[in-house]
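Escalation from tier 1.

The customer reports that the assembly of two entities below gives different structure tokens on two consecutive runs. Tier 1 could not reproduce it. I'm attaching the input and our single run for tier 2 to review.
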Amino acid sequence: MTVNILNPSKLFVGIGNEFRGDDSLGLLIAKRLEQKNISGIEIVTLSSELFSLLDLWQGRDHVILCDAVSSKKTPGTIFRLDLLENSSDSDLFNFSSHSFGIAEILALARKLDQLPRKLSFFGIEGADYTYGNKLSAPVEKSMNLLIDEISQMFIN
Amino acid sequence: MKTDKTIKVDYLARVEGEGGLKIRIKNGKIADLKLNIFEPPRYFEGFLRGRKYSEAPDITARICGICPVAYQMSSIHAMEAVFGLKVTGYMRELRRLLYCGEWIESHVLHAYMLHAPDFLGYQDAIQMAGDHPEIVKAGLRLKKIGNNIVNLLGGREIHPINARIGGWYKIPAKKKFMDLLDDLKWARDTAVDVVKFTSTLNFPDFERDYEFVALSHPDEYALNEGRLISNKGLDIAVDEYEDHFEEIHMSHSTSLHSKRKGNGAYHVGPLARFTLNYDKLSPIAKQAARDAGLGKECYNPFKSIIIRAVETLWACDEAIRILEMFEMPEKPCLDYDICGGIGHAITEAPRGSLYHRYRLDSRGYIRTTKIVPPTSQNLRTMELDLHEFVPPRLDKSTKELTWECEQAIRNYDPCISCSCHFLKLDLIND
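Tier 1 run:
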């Protein structure tokens, strides 16, 4: 886990595996957001240890999770979800490539009353999860749109 | 009583990695029982060939996200055996500290998140958290304390990168170590309660006459060094391992099965370590074990959850001991000369003994590698447990028996990712 820019109220969490093609999406967006030097947000990257989310997001005003999605939709499709309004956690995230994934952590946080006040998920349907550190073209194109959208959200 | 039955579980949950189990019972006897490991082989031993000796610790750490420290430690010790290098003093203690961190996080993850739900009748830890939030919160905090040790000393929580042949790349400042102490003292107190809690669970009446195999050291509860011993007369140096053990290919498994030559299946992991090394546990861990009703040995694999709790307590206590005698080494890494040769090492991963052997050429490049993970060593024993466990319980419903069979496998905290990757269960009644 890497942590940058400490701020208690807003948090961006990029999740992924830098060696599995489009699965590196969350990590790359985190890096690009860091380069923008937006004040007032903490940026964290996670690769496989998602239990730490429970502590990281507790007490926050707004947490954004970002990860690649594999759900047979058109590659490059952008997902925007309000995780606190969606009641069917496991249906929502059973397509994650992470084993004890966001769905389980979210369900656990609900049971333990350890959720932030606002919890958003942004994802992009991936095309290629084979070994390598390059994004596919449709994901790269959508990623640029998503970075602008998330930046605006934090600036506002 | 219906004497023909098929137990089938397509996906065995709450194990690390992926695989499956299928049991066919005919006329009250097991006609077929297979722990299927169908994940493709991972070829680590193959692609280490031609790599430099110094790359092995970080490459083999990638075999497992739960026990990367074990892979690093076994590869580092094996390389040091080739170079005739001996890390001593506080640098050696720091290796034990890193290993304690891994034991805490791995044991707690298994006991709380994967195994406890079996005993309490929950599908998973999430369901359990609804009724027992304080227990789950305590488990998560304990696990995080283990992670913090690995994060500090290893450079990151998963696949740490700071351990190297000869010592460390960098040793953090003393203050950062001391910052761990308060949390560890809380963890030690909490671990005493965890041992008590696990001892109150209901355990099936089941014991087997295992051959327990573990590393044993004359002065300490063995983690990194010692001789490999068993309760059936084995007492060997680690470089004699392949004279006494062999791996066999089974058609239903992409993971090899290990056996002791001439003796067959054997058992590595917490039960083996506890039974063989009980006298080396710290006083607080021994007391907790006694209070939990354990003797000096344990042959009921379902009680492994208590032993994991005892080992968690021991690891917290050992970490505190190491931190309280902190002494900054003069330099983070010893000097050494590269040479060719063969090096062997066994260290104790949370799940059991992990063997590495490397042959290096004179420039320090790897020519051959052999890695025997603990889960491969336990696979045959898991199958034999089920051969004895299932027949007397055929009057149970298929659902109940399937649940108990899955639980029997989880007793071993199998890391199928290490042995190759995943698990799935089938109980068939003809």
